[in-house]
Amino acid sequence: MVGKARFIKYGVFLTGWVFLFAILVFLSTDTLRINYSPLPAVVFSQPSNRIGAFSYASYRPGGDFEPKLFISFDEILVENNHLGIFKSALHQVAKIDDFKFSAHHYSEDSTETVVDGTVDYLPFLSNLQEQIRAYVELLWYELDGWGINFDISRFNVSELLIDDFAYSVFSDSNLVLSIKCNRARASYDSEGLELRGHVVIKAGDAKVLEANRIKWDCENKKFIVKSVYALNKGNVIKTGRSIVLDYELEQCFRQKISNNQNMEEDKCLAKL
Amino acid sequence: MSRKAVAIVILGVCYVTSNCSASEPNDYLVPGRALLFDGSLSGMRGAYALFDDGIKDANCAECTADRELRFSRALAGTVMLLFADDDQPVNSVLELAREFGVELTGEQWGPYFEPNTLCYDYNDVRNQHNIYELPDTAPDKNDLRNIIDTSLIPEIDKIIEDLNSITDLPGDRFRTYLQPDELRIFFHIDSSFADPNSPSYAPRFLNPLEVDYGEVLLLKGVLTRLKVQLQANNAYDTYVDPNDNLLEKYYANVLEYDKDILQVYPEFLNILPTGNDSNDGAAILAQARDEYIEAINFYIDAITYIENEDNPPGTDPQDDELLYLDPNDKEVSDAVIDRLTKVRDSLLNDTADLYPVKKTKIYELVDPCSTTWTLTLNYDIVEMSASRPGSFVASDNNSAPSPWKITYIRQDGNELMIEMDYDVPGNMGGAFFTGTLSSDQNTISDGELSYWGPGYGTLGGFAGPFISTELIERQLDLNPLFGSTARYPGPVNPRNLLPEFDKFNSALPNTLGHGLGNDATLGGILPDMNQYEWQKELNLQPSGLIYLSYASPWQITVDGNLYDWTYDQMVFEDITGEIDEESEDFNGVDIKALYMAYDWDNFYGAIELSNNTDINNDYYYSLYLSYSHENRSAGDALKITIVIDGGNCYGYLYHAKIYENGWTMWENTGAQITRASDGNSIEFSIPFSEIPSYLPGRYITINSIGYDNNGFFDNGEKNKTHLQIGNVGTISGEVTYDCYKTGPIVVEAYTDPADPEGSLVSRTMIEEPGPYTLESIGLGWYGYVRAYTPLFGFDNLFEMSALEVLPEAVLPVYLMASTTDIDITLEHPKRLKKDIWQSGEINSKTKPVKWHYFDAVEGGTYTIDLTPITASYAYIALYDRDASTELIEVFPWDTQHIDFSCLSSGRYYVKIQNSYYEPHDETYQIMMSSDLTCPQADIACAEWAGVKDCKVDSHDLGAFATHWLEDCSASCPCDGSDFDESGEVNFIDFAILADEWMLSGI
User: Fold this and answer.
1) Which has the closest alpha carbon to B248: B743, B581, B661?
2) Residue A178, helix vs strand vs coil
3) Is the peptide bond before B266 cis (omega within 30 degrees of 0)?
C-alpha cells in the first residue's frame, strides 16, 4: 500500500513536469520550442546567478516549420561588475557565452516597419541592449516556472558581455545581414553595440567586412569601423583604416554640416 | 482607581516621557535614510537636516558619536555640495549655477524615475536666439574664488570631520547596510519586474549591500583630493585682461601662445604674489602638499583595509559589498598601492623616486609548423594594455604572415585575446589571437591566430613558455611643484616649465623648460629627462622660414654620395635613434638630415640616413611639400617618393590634384626623376619643367617606411616639420559686410574649395570690416580666399556655434607677387517673404552654402519649398533660432518641401546646399508660405526686438525708434524697420507703422 501511494505520488509529480513542459512548448501563438541541451541543473531553493545551455525557436504558423526566431546560448552568468580597480555588488554584468540569434522575415507577413521606402529588417539590432535584456528576462521567466528560480530582475545588470556572438537576419530565406565576433558589449551607459575580436559582417549581396573593432550604431543603422579593415566584394578587397558603412555595407561619406564648423555627420550618399 | 483609569495614567505617562526622554540614533536614521533614498532632492535635503538635528540633539546622548549617523550626515553632506538649496551664502553647485541663471528643474534625481529626472533650465537667461546669455550679475573670478574659499572648502572640512570621527576597531567594525528598497533608486524601471505596480514586481536586491570603513576612507581621500585641487588653483597668476580679444583669436584659430599670452602677460602662470594678485602662492602650495599626502594616505589605507576585510577568509564574504577587491585583481591593486606609496614617500622625504612606466612580458610560442613566434606584450603602470601594446613576430613565414603589431590586449580569467594589425597602404590587414594562460601566467596554450586582409586563414595549436620580462622606469619628483622642502624651498613657476612655441603653438625642439634656461628636467620634476628624450617622445619638429640654396653649376652630381652638398644646403637635421624601439635592428629608416637646393633647371634633394639600407628590405622615402601646415596631402601638395627595392632605386613625383568632381587625389606626374642611393644616402633631382606648380610657401615633411622581404611594414619615422620654403608674399584687400554688428572677421586662403579647413594656407583675423592682409603665402600659389564671421557676432560666448556668414562667392587668386585689392563681401542670409519666390545660385566650389531666414510666430504653420531650376542636387534643411540646431532636413532624393509648426516665435534659418559636388553656378527658387499674415510693421514683441508677435504696438514703435534715420542696406534693412526698403528709416516708414498701429495679424 505504501509502495502504491509512493508510486501515485511520483506519478503525479512526473505528470506535472510533463504538463509544464507541454505548456512551455505551446506557450506562444506561434509554435514555440524550447530545447535544453543539456538539461540545466534544476535548483529548487535559492536563486542562482548562472544558467547553462539553452535554445529557443519559433516557427511560422501553418505547420511547415518555417523558422521565425532562433536564440541559443551556452551559458549566462551574472556577476558583480568592476568599478575602477574595485568590484561592486551595486552593478552587475551579465556574461553570455556563445550567443546565437537569427530572425526570419517573410514578405507575406507584411507587418514589418517600412522606413524610407525600405523594409526595416533590423528590429532586433535597433535597440539591442533592451532587446537582449527582454529576451533574457523572458527566458528566465519561463525557467522560473520550472522551479529554477532565476530572475534577472533580482540582479542589477548594467552591462552585457557576449562571448562568441552570432547574429543573422534573413528575408524570405535570403541573408540580409550576419554578424560574428569574439565579443559583443552593450552597456546602459552608452549607445550601440561594441563588436570586438575578428568581427565578420556579411551583407546580402556577398559583401564581407572583417575588422577587429566595429561599433554598431543601432540608432542610425551604421557600422563604424575603428580599426584596420578588409572589405571583400566579389573577391575585390578594399582595405583601410576607419570607415563608416550602412547595414548593406555601403560606404557612408562624411559631410560637413557647415563649411566652417567642425560639426560633421555621415551621409550614405554617392559622390560623383 | 479603576483599571481603566490606571491604563489612562500609564498611557499618559508613556506619552509624556516619550516626548521628553532621550532620543536614540534610529529616531533620525530611519526617517533620514528613507528620505535620502526616496529619489527626490527635497528628500536628500530633508535627510541631511534630520541627520544634522540628530547629531546636535542634546537629548540624544548616543547620537553625537553614533558612527552611522555621522556617516549618513557625511554622505548626505557630500550630496549637499551639489544640491544644497538654502538661505545661506552660495555653498553648492546648484546655488552656484543659479548665480549664472541656470536653474535645476524637477525633483527626482534617481534613475528609477527616468525620464522624469532632473533637468537644467536657463529659460530666464536665453536671448532672442534661444541661446544662453551670461547675466550681468553672474559672479566673476574673484567672486568664485571667494565662494570656494569661504563656503565650499569649509563644507568639505565639515564632512571630513564627520568621517574622522568614525572609528573602526578589530572587535568593533563599522558596518552599515543599504537595503534593497533604498538601492532600487539607482536603477531604471525598465521592465515589469522592477515596476512596483506590476504583479510580477520583485525587489532588485536579494541581499542588503554592505558599506564599511573602507568606503569611509575612500570618501575621505576623494574629498581631501578635491580640496587640494580647489586650493592649489589659487596659487598661480592666471590674470588675463577680459577686454583682450583672446576668445576671438581662439575662435579664429589665430591665437599664438607665445605672442598673445606669454609675451603680453609676463606674470601668467607664475607663483603668487605677483602684481595682479597678492596672495601667497607658496603658502597655498605648502598646505596643498600636506593635504595631498593626507589624501594619498587615505587611498592607501582604504585599499589596504578593503583588501584585508575577508581575512581570515570567510569572516566577511565580499560579494555583497558596495566596494571590494577581487583577489584576481591583486596585481593591479598592488601596483596602485606601490605607485601611491612612492609618490607619498617622495613628498615626505623630499626625494625623487623611480616609477614604472611600462612593463613588457615576452612569450615564445611554437605553431604546428614548428615556426617560433615571439609574443611581446606591453602593459602600463597598472598592468593594463599599454598604448603600444606589443608585437607578434614569426621566425619565418612558413605558416602565416608576420610580423603583427598588437593594438589591444584583453585578459579574461585565463583567456588571452589579442587584436593585431599591419598598416601598410594598399596592403592592410588584421588578425586576432586567442590563447589560454596558465594560472601562474608562465605558459600559453591552445593559441589560435585568425587573419584577414590580403591573406586569409586560421592557424591553431600555438603553445609556449614565458621567456622574460622587462620594466621601464622613469624618475619623478613632485617636490619642485609644491616647494617648501630643503632642496626646493620655493615652488617652480609652471610658466618656466613651458617650451618655446612656434606660431602654430607647437613646442620647438630643445626648448622644454624654456623659462629655466631650457632645463629639460623641468626644474627637477623629471630628473633623468634631457632634450633629446623630449624630442624623441614628443616628435618635436623645427619651425620657420628657410630659403633654398642655389647650387653652382655642376656642384651636385646625383650619384648617391653627399660629399658635393654644402652645410648650408641642409634644411633639416634630425635626431637619430627615435624610430620604434621594438625594431631597432631595422636599418635604413632613421633619417639624419635632409638637403635641398636648386639651379636654373632642376630641384635637387638628398636624404642622409643614420645607417645603411639593407639590400633584402624595401624602403620608401617620401618628401611632402604642401601649402597646408596641417594636412600634407591637401590639394596642390607635392610628394616626391624614392623607392629602394632590392638595391634598385626608383623615383616618383606625385601631385595632389583637385578634380572637378571635388575629389583630391594623388596623381603620378610621370616626371623624369634622376635618383641614386648609396648605403646611407639618397639623392634625386627633378627638372622644374616637370613639377606642376611652384615650391615657395610649402611646408616640408620627410617620412621613411621600411618593409622586410615579405612586404610587411616594419619600421619608419615621420617628420612633419613647420619649416616653410621661403619667397612668400601677401594677399590683401578689404572685407565689407552690410549687417556687421560686432566682433572680428576671419579671412582665409586655401587650396581646395571642397575642403577649405583641410587645405588652409594662411589665416588672419580683423577686428571689424575693413582691410586685411594674409601673410606667408608662397609666390606662385594658386588658390582661394574667403572670409567669415559668426552670424550673431562675438558679444555672447555661447553664440559662437551659430552659422557663419560667408562671402557672396569665394575668390580665386593667383599670387605671382604680393597681391592687393582682393576684396570680399560677406553675404547676410536673405529674408524669405511670404508667398514670394526668391531666386538664388549655388556652386559647390565658390558658393557652397546659401542661407535664408524667415520670422515665424508661435502657433503659425509655415511651409518652405525649393524648386531646383538648374540646381538639381540642391536640398534644404531648417535650422532653429540659434542658427546651429538642425530642426528638419529633407533628404536630397525627396521633394524639397518642409512643413513647420512654430512653437516659439523667432527667426528661423533655411540652409541650401548640394548633395553632389557641382562646381558650376546653378540656380534655384525658394518660397516660404504661412497660414499667418502679420502686419508689415510688426518687428518686435514684449521681450525682444526682432521677434514678431503679429501685432503692432508700442514694442514695435520702440524698436522702430532705435533705427530712426538710420541708413539701411537691401540685405540688412535695419532689423525690418525700413519697411519700404528705401535705404533709410524715415517718415514713409513711420506712416506705414502708424497706418498699422494696433493692427493684429490673421
Assistant:
1) B743
2) strand
3) no
Measured CA to CA, the distance from residue B785 to residue B820 in angstroms comes to 12
pTM of the model: 0.80
Tell me whether A87 touches chain B (CB under 8 Å). Answer: yes
| Residue type, position B987, single letter | F
The string of DSSP letters for B777-828 reads EETTEEEEEEEEEETT-SSSGGGTTSPEE-BSS-EEEEESS-B----EEB-P
B19: exposed, middle or buried (Cβ count in 10 Å: 0-12, 13-18, 19+): exposed
Nearest CA in chain B to A263: B801
CB atoms within 10 A of CB A253: 11
Q: Determine whether the interchain pair A260/B323 forms a contact, defined as Cβ–Cβ distance below 8 Å.
A: no
Parallel, antiparallel or unpaired: strands B874-879 and B906-914: antiparallel
Count CB pairs under 8 A between chains A and B.
Answer: 162
Cβ distance of A89 and B325 shorter than 8 Å = no
CA distance B917 to chain A (A): 7
- Of B512, B543, B548, which Cα lies nearest the Cα of B530? B512
User: From the CA atom positions of chain B, what is the Rg in Å?
Assistant: 36
pLDDT tens per residue across span B386-425: 667 888 988 887 788 888 889 999 888 889 999 998 765 5
The confidence band for B199, taking pLDDT boundaries of 50, 70 and 90, is low
Quick check: A151 and B430 CB within 8 A?
no
Q: Is the dihedral of CA B984, B987, B989, B993 positive or negative?
A: positive
CB-nearest to A210 from B202, B329, B430 is B430
Q: Can you tell me the distance from the alpha carbon of B449 to that of B417, in angstroms, rounded to the nearest whole number?
A: 10
> Closest to A272 (Cβ–Cβ): which among B336, B806, B917?
B917
Give CA separation, A247 vs A71, A115, A120, B516, in Å.
21, 14, 11, 57
Nearest-angstrom CA–CA distance, B298 and B612: 56
Copy the grid coordinates of residue B543. 619651425
- Nearest Cα to Cα of residue B779 among B690, B697, B693, B656: B697
What is the least distance, in Å, from the CA of A151 to any CA of chain B? 9
Dump pLDDT digits (tens) for A14-29. Answer: 333 333 333 333 333 3
Among the listed residues B646, B598, B644, B655, the one whose alpha carbon sits nearest the alpha carbon of residue B621: B644
- Are β-strands B922-930 and B861-868 bridged in parallel, bridged antiparallel, or unpaired? antiparallel
Contact B194 A153 (CB under 8 A): yes
Q: Residue B797: how many CB atoms within 10 A of its CB?
A: 12
CB A163 within 8 A of CB A96: yes
Chain A, residues 32-51, CB within 8 A of chain B, namely: 47
Tell me the β-bridge partners of B715: B706
Nearest-by-Cβ selection for A86 from B194, B324, B917: B324
* Structure-derived torsion over alpha carbons of residues A83, A87, A88, A93, reported in degrees to the nearest 10: 80
Residues A194, A217: Cα–Cα separation, whole Å: 9
Q: Would the pLDDT of A154 be above 60?
A: no
B807: closest chain A residue by CA? A259
DSSP B313: T
Strands (E), A85-187: 86-105, 114-115, 118-119, 157-171, 174-187
- Residue B909 CA, distance from chain mean position: 29
CB contact under 8 A, A272 and B916: yes
Asked if A86 lies within 8 A of B325 by C-beta distance, the reply is yes
Predicted pLDDT at B713: 58
Shortest Cα distance from B426 to chain A (angstroms)? 7
CA-nearest residue to B325 within chain A is A86
CB contact under 8 A, B756 and A86: no
Residue carrying C-alpha cell 583567456: B415
